[in-house]
Write a structure and sequence with these properties.
The complex is a heterodimer. Chain A is α/β, with parallel strands linked by helices. Helix content of chain A is about 30%, strand content about 20%. In chain A, a hairpin with a 3-residue loop joins strand 5 and strand 6. In chain A, helix 3 packs parallel to helix 4 and helix 4 packs across helix 6. Chain A is globular, with a radius of gyration of 22 Å. In chain B, strands 2-1-5-3-4 form a five-stranded mixed β-sheet, covered by helices on one side. Classes of the chains: A alpha/beta, B mainly beta.
């Protein structure tokens, strides 16, 4: 392929629908995907040759539709798997690493890298076999079966129910689902959700009920311990504390938008889907199309027929707000009461005690330079929210320091392998 | 391609298209050594964001969750090589 006109990062719903929209206007698109298969988190595809009992019919239909729209564009869309986007410099040169290192000069960039999973710090959350609920979902979807062993899911949010139902379908129902909120108390509020949401939730609940999976609401995780090779989960509700033994724990406290690629550049950059605003799968499709259409308009001067479907996005936004209220609970007391040796920054092993030692109102400079928070290899993706909540909740949501490229650690060898863009005749350099 | 990778010299089978993190977890290997500051390493996010599953693969430090298995690939804990 010659230089792509548009580079799309992420082969999930948003990335694919953006790619189809852009290629539909006659432009060449390169989609890069860090995983070995498309689908992102929600529609992650099983390994070759593995039957797929996990995805719901709605999910399968949606995915079939979007992949057909990509296929229909033929060789105007190239997809490269095992390929990571490391960043875009101010001149519009993008570095790709992984399967094939390369520097490319697209005329525009679409970032569609999906949501980040929120996970509250808790004592023991750094133990092996404690991972995000999303990680368990990916394992279940790629292998077409649930992981072995006694599985516990905990935290808060509708994704826990989805993950639980997938584990049931994957042949290993979770021992229990621990939900900090009290979603079932909001019957009236739940009725205000759009019908597809209710149908999806009812499907998950029916699956969990059939498998007799206990769903404990109003129950918070206090700590996780390793005991004689297994994990013990300590939980607490208004009726007291209890423990669960398990081999594998999936934690989840919601999803949020995530953008670690936002460098100013000379070319147009659009964000699409959950990485822009965490609104879920239905919105991601519409958002990808809208981002694609906006880029086509900018690059060609013609506005595609599929104008921005803002009503769709607004509807999903309202539904997500309602869901957030239904699962809402105040976790600030639990956070403030964390023992001093609880790890907040997983990269650099920085604790609640280290954070408190910086004084009552640490500046960002204190937090970074002296505390080393958000200075690790993940660039603060997993600690910033909790550092803010514990030090200055009024700045919740603001990053700790500027976004730095590369977006993930790369090897010097990656840069050397990438070659020079001057080698490419189509750039004219 | 399916076959075997090696974790500290011990053979670990993998499925076609499987990544190293998945193969190691299926083999019951959840602790991927220690991070430079002493925390246990292992799979956390599984989508290349947390850097928790870094391992040495054929001499290169890389995320196991994004590393597609190749026959005979040699993996080891990252040890002190991170910095």
């Amino acid at each position: 392929m010659n230089e792509p006109v548009v580079l799309v990062v992420g082969a999930g719903l948003a990335g694919f629908s953006a790619a189809a929209e852009i290629a539909g206007a006659g432009l060449r698109v390169l989609v890069v995907e860090q995983a070995a298969a498309p689908g992102g988190a929600i529609h992650r595809q099983p390994l070759p040759g593995i039957a797929y009992p996990v995805a719901s019919a709605v999910h399968r239909r949606r995915w079939t539709q979007v992949t057909a729209s990509v296929r229909a564009q033929g060789d105007r869309i190239e997809i490269r798997y095992g390929c990571r986007f490391a960043g875009l410099d101010h001149e519009g040169t993008a570095l790709l690493t992984g399967a094939r290192n390369a520097l490319v000069r697209p005329r525009a960039l679409v970032i569609a890298t999906g949501a980040a999973e929120r996970v509250r710090p808790r004592p023991g959350w750094t133990l092996p076999n404690v991972m995000t609920a999303g990680a368990l979902q990916i394992r279940t979807k790629t292998l077409g079966k649930a992981p072995d062993g006694r599985i516990l899911l905990g935290g808060s949010g509708p994704l826990l129910l989805a993950a639980g139902a997938e584990l049931v379908k994957g042949g290993n129902p979770p021992v229990a689902i621990i939900e900090a909120g009290r979603p079932f108390r909001h019957v009236i509020g739940s009725l205000g959700l759009p019908l597809p949401y209710l149908r999806e939730a009812a499907g998950y609940m029916a699956t969990l009920l059939r498998a007799r999976v206990p769903v404990l609401t109003g129950t918070e995780i206090v700590r996780i311990e390793k005991r004689s090779g297994a994990l013990t989960l300590h939980v607490e509700s208004s009726s007291g504390g209890r423990t669960f033994d398990g081999d594998l724990i999936g934690l989840h406290d919601g999803i949020r938008a995530s953008d670690h690629y936002a460098a100013a550049s000379s070319i147009p950059v659009m964000r699409a889907g959950d990485c822009r605003e965490a609104l879920g799968a239905r919105a991601a499709l519409a958002d990808g199309r809208a981002a694609g259409a906006a880029l086509v308009a900018e690059l060609t001067g013609t506005v595609p027929a599929s104008a921005k479907d803002s009503s769709r996005i607004e509807r999903e936004r309202r539904a997500q707000r309602r869901l957030a209220r239904i699962f809402g609970h105040d976790g600030s007391a639990r956070l403030a009461a964390l023992p001093a040796d609880t790890v907040i920054c997983r990269c650099e092993n920085r604790t609640v005690g280290d954070l408190r030692a910086l004084g009552p109102v640490p500046t960002d400079r204190d937090l970074r330079l002296h505390g080393r928070f958000a200075m690790g290899a993940c660039q603060g993706r997993f600690c910033t929210e909790w550092v803010r909540a514990l030090t200055d909740p009024s700045h919740a949501g603001s990053p700790l320091g500027a976004v730095r490229l590369p977006a993930h650690p790369i090897a010097i060898a990656d840069l050397l392998d990438a070659g020079g863009i001057a080698d490419n005749p189509s750039t004219g350099e | 391609m399916s076959g075997r990778i090696y974790w500290n010299g011990t053979p670990v089978p993998f499925l076609p298209g499987e990544n190293a993190a998945s193969a190691l977890l299926r083999a019951g290997i959840a602790g991927f050594g220690r991070t430079p500051t002493g925390l246990p390493g292992g799979v956390f996010c599984a989508i290349g964001q947390c850097q928790g599953c870094l391992v040495m693969a054929d001499g290169r430090l890389t995320e196991a969750c994004l590393l597609e298995c190749r026959e005979g690939m040699r993996l080891s804990p990252r040890g002190g090589m991170n910095e």
